[in-house]
Amino acid sequence: MDVATTNQHAKYDRLIAQCAGLPPVPTAVVHPCDAASLTGAMQAAEAGLIVPLLVGPEVRIRRIAAEQGLDIAHCRIFDTPHSHASADKGVELVRTGEAAALMKGSLHTDEVMGAVVRHDTGIRTERRISHVFIMDVPTYPKPLFITDAAVNIAPTLDDKVDILANAIELAQALGVERPKVAILSAVETVSAKIPSTIDAAALCKMAERGQIKGAVLDGPLAFDNAISKEAAAMKGIVSPVAGDADILLVPDMEAGNMLAKELTFLANADAAGIVLGARVPIVLTSRADSVRARLASAAVAVIYAHARRAAALAKPRD
To answer: Alpha-carbon distance 167 to 162, whole Å?
Structure first.
């Protein structure tokens, strides 16, 4: 049997195992009004990852639970009339301290994020919000972080600084002490005709000058150079990142989204996803996600939430 096949989910198994001993995180599950989202939330609860706070029309939630044979007797339900109200209530639970994470249910991502970024009642921080895929690729020896493939459509250089900071902080929380960041483009040389190569060069210089901390950066790198030592050697690239990247910073959302989906559908990868840069981690699940990917997304949120809390407690007060 192919080793890649037998070990296909080992990386996610290790992620979930990292949560052993960590208290489950109170999580506002926003509008879990279909079988997939409610089942995913309850599976995460059964695995000891979250304490689900179900936010949505109570009658619908109870009907779906009954249809799917889900026991929600011990869950708190916050009754709301529709999806927009569910998003607002989920964010309110974070603001009041009742929830330490958000999980998207069966509403559109824009509805959740609209409530998150609202200036008067949202939960933004000084850092730009961004999405990270944590990919379990059977043919790659470690988790592969891809950012940003879901939130920032055409990020500027300044946006990419925040996107990188979010991804580096996440990788460190998951145990990658000094992640290696490959800044992707179509080529591995700087060209004025390809703006992403200019951004890559600038980001690397910023890292040299201490403006980006906690990681080793290199770029521009083409995708093959970033994940294959052989491809990098053929191009004569000498780099601590090439062929061994932890984080792939993509030029824009289109490139990132296509890359993540190509790995999912052509390389049998699983894609856990999380949004960072808000006060709490936000789990964005998809109906196409496997059970393991859903649990991995919840596990990532749990580990990150605990790491943030520990960092806040360790920070000296004025």
So the answer is: 9
